[in-house]
Design goal:
Helix content: 25-40%
Structural class: alpha/beta
Shape: globular
Number of helices: 6
Strand content: 15-25%
CATH architecture: 3-Layer(aba) Sandwich
CATH class: Alpha Beta
Order of helices and strands: EHEHEEHEHEEEEHEH
Radius of gyration: 16 Å
Distance between the termini: 25 Å
CATH topology: Rossmann fold
Length: 212
């Protein structure tokens, strides 16, 4: 049984990922930034590390085979936190993975538009730039990776349908958080998802066909 580290475990996607992995019988280690948020995970059978990502969190990596980074600064925070969490903490998470011999796969949640932030005229461009830099850093690291770049995240029910084909200009680019969580858990189970950068949108393909 593999030990999976979930960084950003108290977020909306992180909690879904933890729940699914525990249900599937995995040993899950979760990083939460504060004790109040960590209490949201206490109903799950997992190990909790309470640590701020702006501090050292390398101790959480001991014996871990899979790392999932789904942490984010949040839409209500300023761009200073975006740099500290989405960029700097992510970089350190990748560094720790390279230093821990047991790590065999790093799964990073990025964003649609991170491939070329100049292409999207939006107020979130600074966020996309941090994602672009982090994605590039991971793809140049020694640890096998999967980078997932979902479209606009929604709280609609899961559809179970995916596509990696970018919709036409003006078309719907959304995907539910539950579908994204399911895609992350699929990557945990399937080595065929390694060394891949994949955009994710709601579509009509099954997850295995999309990665096939």
């Amino acid at each position: 049984m593999k030990t999976i580290l979930v960084i950003g475990a108290t977020g909306q996607i992180g909690q879904r990922v933890c729940q699914s992995l525990v249900n599937d019988g995995h040993s899950v280690r979760a990083i939460a930034r504060d004790s109040q948020r960590a209490s949201e995970l206490e109903h799950l059978d997992l190990e909790i590390f309470t640590v701020d990502l702006e501090n050292d969190f390398c101790d959480a990596y001991e014996g871990v085979q899979k790392v999932i980074f789904v942490a984010g600064s949040g839409s209500s925070s300023g761009y200073d936190k975006t740099i500290l969490v989405d960029l700097w903490a992510a970089k350190r998470a990748i560094d720790y993975a390279e230093e821990e011999p047991s790590v065999e796969h790093f799964i990073l949640l990025s964003s649609f538009g991170a491939d070329d932030p100049d292409e999207i005229n939006s107020s979130i461009k600074p966020y996309l730039i941090t994602k672009h830099i982090t994605d590039e850093y991971l793809t140049k690291a020694s640890v096998p990776y999967t980078v997932l770049r979902p479209g606009k995240l929604t709280n609609t029910p899961a559809t179970g349908g995916f596509t990696s084909e970018r919709p036409n200009i003006g078309a719907d680019t959304s995907i539910s958080r539950t579908d994204v969580a399911d895609a992350i858990c699929y990557c945990v189970e399937h080595d065929s998802t390694k060394i891949r950068v994949v955009e994710l949108f709601t579509g009509h393909e099954t997850i295995d066909r999309m990665f096939g």
